[in-house]
Amino acid sequence: xxxxxxxxxxxxxxxxxxxxxxxxxxxxxxxxxxxxxxxxxxxxxxxxxxxxxxxxxxxxxxxxxxxxxxxxxxxxxxxxxxxxxxxxxxxxxxxxxxxxxxxxxxxxxxxxxxxxxxxxxxxxxxxxxxxxxxxxxxxxxxxxxxxxxxxxxxxxxxxxxxxxxxxxxxxxxxxxxxxxxxxxxxxxxxxxxxxxxxxxxxxxxxxxxxxxxxxxxxxxxxxxxxxxxxxxxxxxxxxxxxxxxxxxxxxxxxxxxxxxxxxxxxxxxxxxxxxxxxxxxxxxxxxxxxxxxxxxxxxxxxxxxxxxxxxxxxxxxxxxxxxxxxxxxxxxxxxxxxxxxxxxxxxxxxxxxxxxxxxxxxxxxxxxxxxxxx
Length: 374
What we know:
66% helix; elongated; Alpha-Beta Plaits; 2 domains; alpha+beta; 7 strands
């Protein structure tokens, strides 16, 4: 039971930032509407006191009411000005400012209603009840803010005005406060549920997008993802940012499958992917583009000597692969095309790298051949 209660009040850490951002956006709109209403109503009240009452500001009572109306009117103006100035501030700064504004308005209504009771309007709690219900409906607050706000507001109002309230009015006031607090807590909880579900949906979509782009066996990019990635990188190629596309093809892979079986072949493919990740950490794109063919895309200056050294490292590490205690004698051939031109298509660059790969195989396999496209 205790765990359920704590869960109801808690804001999970994974959505805490989203919760505060959502609360600030929601409260911003609500406070804008409330301030516009305050400006209209309090302007009318000030005019009413000044020009529509018999005594104007000649009585203490009218001066007190007029001061209260002016105070709330100026508070609304000040909020609108500061809200505009703080529109680019951090989320928590905006939230604290919003909460301070809400707390002030709530306190103002308590003071106004308490003064009504002092003047002899017995059992008059309409202003306070309107304030707490409006607070519950329009303002988003987590439990650690809403519980103290409603509790302290209720306690303060009872201290100031309970002497002028009947037992029935106190009961009605207590029930209204509890209902308002329940509405506020429920609203906050619903926001948590909605944001949690939205995050789960976003994560599921991200995983689906990853699966769409991913080769299921090796975890590398699939052919279509490699295509899109290379075209994006190619568009940024220049003399200062050359581009290299490397095609890696396992030598005599069919013989490995025939000799050791397809489970061994799958193992070799997955191990090749792991070694490509390790040897080419600078690659912007690593993918499996065929049964035993891989692509490595590297943006940035790469000397031919560096690429040859990495290719030799790949050959050495593949040669160490074993299957069920037997050496598999895995090797590969590499064809690399380097260019600084941004007007090439993926198809042309792939054809050039593939031609270099074919020449490497023709020269005896287990080697790297690099070509430049001017």
